[in-house]
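re: ur question from earlier - yeah i can do the single chain one, its not a big deal. heres the input i used so u can compare w yours
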Amino acid sequence: MVSIIDKIINQSDIIIEVVDARAIDFTRNKRIEEKIKRKGKFLFVVAMKVDVVDEKKLKEKLSKLGVPAVYASFKNKKGYREVRKLINIGAYKIKKERNKDKIFVGVIGYTNTGKSSLINLITFSSKTRASSLPAFTKKYQWIKLKKDIMLIDTAGVIEAKNPKELHVLKGNVNPEKVECYDHALELLRYAKRYENNFEKVLDISIEDEERAIEQYALKRKFLLKDGKPDVERAAKEIIRKWNNAELSMFVD
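and the output i got, formated as tokens:
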């Protein structure tokens, strides 16, 4: 069975890979990037969740990715023109090389990287939707960006195929589905290595990761029946705050 992400890659001429600006290397997928390149598609990267990272460091990081890359923010309506510009560059190149009349654009990325926010950002003025694409179920539609450029209205999610592919920095740890204590410990270990806002947001010291989770449980009054801190509940909330971009660090 062909996955949604493969359908999007196969049907699109231009692929936008959305990454989390806080952890770009962890939220890129080099294997899928190579597949896209082998198929002759035009690929570029957009970093989202940029409001909580240093803009200068982000620009420097994006300049070294080896593929065209920009950053954007739905919250502050930032990066709209830059994303549209890369779409137009890709469309011009493809039209010239392949003599195509219409160009199709797809969006892919890991869970919680900001794919839907990017789609909303670049389509805020595009109300015209084309008929459903036959290769997709009827809930997927193309949005007209320009008369000759169409964007799929649903992003392709890069899923973890097994538990080993779950990684807290990829944003694919779902606190509603998995135990989070070990993942929260890992997140705090990373935070200690980089500039972060964890202590400010959580109002705890993260010097000792295990103690930090206990402190947070006590602060939030997450207690078990015996009065001990409910560290799993606290860990889940810490992961939620990371996934929702309330917590930040810049992993360079």
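Strands lie at 14-20, 42-48, 69-71, 103-110, 129-132, 141-146, 149-152, 156-158. not sure if urs matches, ping me
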